[in-house]
Amino acid sequence: IEVGALGGDRADLAIRHDLAADGTRSEFLQWFHFRVSGAERDGTRLRIVNAGRTTYAGGWRDYRAVASWDRRRWERVPTAFDGEVMTVELAPARGPTYVAYFEPYPWERHLALLADSCARGATLRRLGSTVQGRDLDVLVAGEGAQPVWIIGRQHPGETMAEWFIEGLLARLLDEADPIGSALRAQATFHIVPNM
């Protein structure tokens, strides 16, 4: 996020453009995740001044940003959008506040998801690498004749997709779950948690 004007109990911010595969600025802008410090005593009003020019500006209607004070528990905070500017209200806090588009899904948690899934019976295969050189992996589970592909998180800001994949894998790989067992018997699942 880019910081513009600061003053009193408010800050004007702007969402940055994502980077394209070649490292140049892409036209896509929607995702944000940042820390707010120095507003602990009085709280603050954050104005995202370019929200109306983001890729999916219509998505801000009835949207509420998420915030965390410990980076483990996240909750929705008061947010308003007037068609151009999105305003996020932060109450006083005991320390810094972390604000995001959706709850982040950290890379370390992604790696733990892969390891845990393999320990629970899935097979990990490398499909290739991303434009940033990271491994692009698929988890394979099941022995059924029907192939099923599930692909999550095709864009950086789609962290909610990987949270979904985590829950899906927890149930699918649970040996005590009759639905997960039945699905694995009927199909072979190819699950890409993070494209």
Structural account:
By secondary structure, this protein is an alpha+beta fold. It is built from 3 helices and 13 strands; from the N terminus they run βββββββββαβββααβ. The strands form 3 sheets. Strands 1-2-4-8-7 form a 5-stranded mixed sheet, with no helix packed on it. Strand 1 (2-7) and strand 2 form a beta hairpin. The longest helix is centred in the C-terminal third of the chain and has 14 residues, at 159-172. The mean pLDDT is 93.
Secondary structure topology:
Elements: E1 2-7, E2 10-14, E3 33-36, E4 44-48, E5 66-68, E6 75-76, E7 79-81, E8 86-90, E9 97-100, H1 107-119, E10 123-129, E11 135-141, E12 146-151, H2 159-172, H3 178-186, E13 187-192
Parallel strand pairs: 2-4, 12-13
Antiparallel strand pairs: 1-2, 3-9, 4-8, 5-6, 5-9, 7-8, 10-11, 11-13
Quaternary structure: single chain
Question: How much helical structure, as a percent, in the residues?
Answer: 10-25%
What is the ordering of alpha helices and beta strands? EEEEEEEEEHEEEHHE
* Largest sheet properties: 5 strands, mixed
The number of distinct helices, counting runs of at least 4 residues, comes to: 3
State mean pLDDT (0 to 100 scale): 93
